[in-house]
Sequence to fold (478 residues):
Amino acid sequence: MIKRVWRGAIRFLGSARLATWLLAIVGVWVTLATLVPQTTDSAVKAAAWAKAYPVLEPVVRALGLYHAYTSLGFLACVVLLGVSTGFCAWERTKAALRRARTLRDTASVTVSSLAERHDLKLACDPALRAPDVLSTASETLAGLGIKTTRRDDVLAAVSPPWSVWGSPVFHWALLVLIAAILVGNLQRSEGLMGVAVGQTQVDAPPSYGVLQAGPLHDWNWVRRSIRVDAFDPAFHSGGIDRGPTPTVAVLDSAGRVIKTQLVYPNKTLQIGTLTIHTNAYGLAAYVSLVKPSGTEASGVELVDFSDTAAGGTVTAAPLNVRDKTTGQTQLAIAVSVPLDQSGGDFVQLLPKDPTARVVVTSLDGTQLVDSVVRPGQEVALPTGDSLRLDKFGYYARLSVVDDWTIPLLYVGLVVAGVGLTLTVVARQQLVLLTVVEGQDGIKLIGSVRLWRNAPTSRSEVERELAQALGEDKKGSAS
Fold:
């Protein structure tokens, strides 16, 4: 009873129907994920989408589509698909081993060995001689799309042993991809980091605006920093407009540059387990908090473009001024940069004559200061300090992914592509024919196995050979 249930479970898990349904579910889920903003990409966009579609929002939230690739339902389907693919890959591997062994054994096939073991036997016209039978059989098979070669007195059309490995390779590569996805979700980190030109950010959680890290990701092993050395709002290369393009550098724990390069769409910075590509860009206001004693503390206010804000920009995150003694936040400073306009639309570039609007609010939201300043000017703060605007520039919002499984994904995709191509293209066949003479006349005997991508069928081969060799009946297999 237990053995029967176990075998039934194995058949179910390895069935093509289950794998097809799981692939369909995963495919639909991934498609839906492209329609719903992911919180890992932009929490602001996700909130805006929820506000725009209040009817769908509860369903999307209940299904976990805001974090589609880490939701329990998606991961459960992927795990089950992995198990199903594993069983399927194992069964196909066993079948491929049997076929490959059979194909290799044909190298030593002779007339006598075929006479002892064959699965096709056709009586021939008594008027035909053995060479005529083989010639006629060869021409008949060629008309069916099977080209034969002559080995002594044996006609052979045998695929190479490697032809049977396409399907197993594809399924094992698919299993590797599934495993990489699961492991990647557990140990990868992915987030958005805003870095102004000339600024260096330590690769640590406080540096990210949006961050998602798997439960197995260990920040203690991450000892690097990310810097933006330059920014071109309209970079051209090879006659192609690459768009806003930062020059990004990755530094080690000692501050030495490990790698630096331009980063734009389809041109990511990759080093080790780290992958960096651009997500968006904005403006940067470089400011200094000046104490009455004359001491200064420099900082950068990141400013995002906005289609709804009055001046075309909003602060990415307010600058908090804390009490020196208690460490409590006293003031929130928001900096925006009024943009130039063209044709009634805001130009999402640094204005020709940039100014900054500085708004200072208290903890209860009371507006205390609203002032417009230029570089070099200061704004007096209620705390007795002053905020000086030093200069303007750009910042790049970088998507930073730390995942050692990414190269494995690429390798798995390539191998899966090779396996799938081999499965679709490679012919798997074994045709061995020879002639034997006995008391009851001349007979064509042999083995015919047409496994995959054959241009004909076993029944058609028998029928056409029987007709070509002058047999009155269709023939018989033994």
